[in-house]
């Protein structure tokens, strides 16, 4: 599990990014100014603004432009100036991308997606290798565009992925540290804490397996609290005031900056009457965080699935989403390659996302540059964009649950796809649509009127309407009342009226209530 | 209800359902085209109207005339004296004249390189500060020294100078007036507009020394015409097919027809009968200009910056003199001067079928969308087919996906979903789209004298390319493309084409419609493994509608209308002209038509040809033999 086998992949990805940076020098700045890439809380341009103020010993939050974490400032002030020596900034972002990809590689190689501690999927052999998953992340156009646009959300992405890796490899404390860093940068990753605790708990080293979940959760929460407080304290020392709270997390909580983005919040809050604003802010945030509890409990056996679904939900419903978020959610979804055959709307969801990815910039252009459209054009497309993503995430949830259900009931829900004699001719092999198969000497078909077996044999079954009507009646009779009927036949009798052709049939069933065999219980 | 549900469910599994989409797709195309042809009828078009109340066109008395005619003659004399001088000398002369009027003068250098040619020059411009304004808004009067045809715009420049002198006397302007005199109508004005909006590449185009406020409108005067004229031709197409606000065109029509008693014309239909025939021709010519997206006058460069602009050209022989045109410009400027906010009330998307009849976007957009939707329908059908076994009920091929599928092929009634082999088709489609960068690069970086030979070589290469790729794929892949893979190939390609065209339809309706229309044969491309004749006939049909063939045919048609197509060298010259125009558009105006042709249309065509040439059935036989 080293760099040897992935070095080629990483260098190809780095070369592609460097080539784009070098041969299209206008591209990074173009992407940086796109609302799809940069949001008020991640924009690279705003970071430059904050950096300028910081380097001139003015509070970076004074301008009302910079809404990002204070610790990013010393990091970027270490680098040479981005406008004169952009190469170092590019290098940093490329390295962050590769670090994220390597984390993904390790997550995929661990096989956690299909084989967690409490659950093993029947399809676990159909997973993609870490190499493929990392390649999908690195060569995803959304990831590349994000890297070129240089929003600071890539650091959050990297921290989240490392938190997951560390949790899987049995380092709960490091994992919590990484999550704290992600939460410190962007706040919303704190919602990932419960499923991450579960994941870390399931994947502890057997040696320290003695404590139960609650104390474990206590310790991890304490770790997160401590590391977050430390980060805040450092931030306080850096900026000299607690102002950064309201300027970073406050902006996300109260949505004061209504710059358009690909999410659903901005338009809603532009239209909102001020008196309802705080109520709906509460509702929106409650909605976003409400998924955490339900998913963690329902998919308890697969914490990684919970995290994946939550990440996809964030990229739809968080206050300032961008394509960086969908690149993260599209990066973790391929870990669940084994449930893809169970997903039903992949084509539709993929087409919707693809179409809206192209129509979005076109409509934004009509609104902002050509002036011939208006805000509704762009908002309508962000709705479609969110619809595509919602389809994907709900389909994935369905597939994960269905996969679990099939393991719980292995015999249920098989659909025959075809059958054929085996090569030696001794047995019959039946294959099901989920690519599992069963062998036996006889195939007995009892699959009803629209029988697949029959249609495979070339004579599709149909229903025949009989020219007759039936009426059924049941009656509870005592033993004495039964006697005359029993005297005809102890079990059943039938007969037809010779004139009308009416047919009558009755059967007798002795039940436990009447024959006295009912036990005391 | 349950019965209805079960009927629907049975219908869902009905194999006949899979036969429906091709007809649906064809219907979409037919309805789309018929829709377009219906647009010129009275029921589908509307009369134009002034939507912005502040404009009040033709409601002010215009005073230009009288002694200004003498001024005009004097300026024309001055302009004539500069006629054969160099660009710098002309600008020196103009600067002296304009400074004499009392305006601030600025000059700007620019150099563009395209197709091995250099387009350099110096713009001269002057700003008249509004006595009542605060320099936050401005209106532009453009008179290029030479018009788009390269004719000396003698009267236009003289008229603009006269108007500038006349405007200077009035105190009613609330917006600054900028007079721009670029040396040509194509590169110079683009450099000026770019620099005005700080969107220029400062290594080639100099920044402007003086500026005014936000541009609210621009009128260009193209007046090389000598003597009296009958009416004005209003040219309104902008770069990349964007159009100015309809209110501007309406106002000018209103002033010209109502106040001046002049005729006005659009799209070179002089003598418009307002019957179906003329309306359709006007509309189609408008669509052609929009689809090509080239600059048709100095006003075109303003429109991408959301500055509404038109060019006025006097035409015909009548009784109007240059003072009439001057009054028309004055009236238009007085209307623009009234504006309280940017023109936004009226339409930006319209097709004009007569100077006072138009079709609005809601009425015409469905036709392009229907054509684009036909690709999406076929893409979905191909996706479904690729998943339903091998689709043997529709196509004759029998050997396919898995080895042990004899049983399945006999039962088309309940097709089980087959695993799709996505990677190879997806890879081919993506590779074809990236391959499009190659012709795009070649035709935008070749010196102009090599463009025509290069294009001919490319056209020949284009004919051999599909079989070449087809064989290459079959050689390198472990086995030839299966029917399922061909379906997926077509599905992805059409999905992308449908997506690009529906996005494009919102930006440039005509281009999307035209590309969609010539791409329709791609919808019905499919492999004919057992009919070599049909296969090659269809491949030949696809070659007729290939981008290269369409460009050649368009060039020939253009050459014949210009009377150049008599001999081969005339054709070659025209081809060189067309291609270098395209390269010029790409480099200077920022045209995206080459991108659409080479990175959207050409790859889709290439993949379509691959699908037709695919031989899933016969290839395996050849290998086993």
From TrEMBL, chain A:
Belongs to the PIGU family. It is found in: Endoplasmic reticulum membrane. Pathway: Glycolipid biosynthesis; glycosylphosphatidylinositol-anchor biosynthesis. Pfam families: PIG-U. The keyword Lyase does not apply. This is GPI transamidase component PIG-U. Keywords: Endoplasmic reticulum, GPI-anchor biosynthesis, Membrane, Transmembrane, Transmembrane helix. InterPro entries: PIG-U. The chain crosses the membrane at residues 7-27, 87-107, 128-145, 181-201, 213-238, 264-287, 299-317, 347-370, 376-401. One of its GO terms (cellular component) is GPI-anchor transamidase complex. The keyword Transmembrane helix applies. GO terms for biological process: attachment of GPI anchor to protein; GPI anchor biosynthetic process. It is a multi-pass membrane protein. Its main location: endoplasmic reticulum. It comes from Xylaria hypoxylon.
TrEMBL record, chain B:
The keyword Cytoplasm does not apply. The keyword Transmembrane applies. One of its GO terms (biological process) is attachment of GPI anchor to protein. Keywords: Membrane, Transmembrane, Transmembrane helix. Pfam families: Gaa1. One of its GO terms (cellular component) is GPI-anchor transamidase complex. The chain crosses the membrane at residues 20-41, 364-384, 422-443, 450-472, 492-515, 536-559, 589-613. Coiled coil: none annotated. This is GPI transamidase component GAA1.
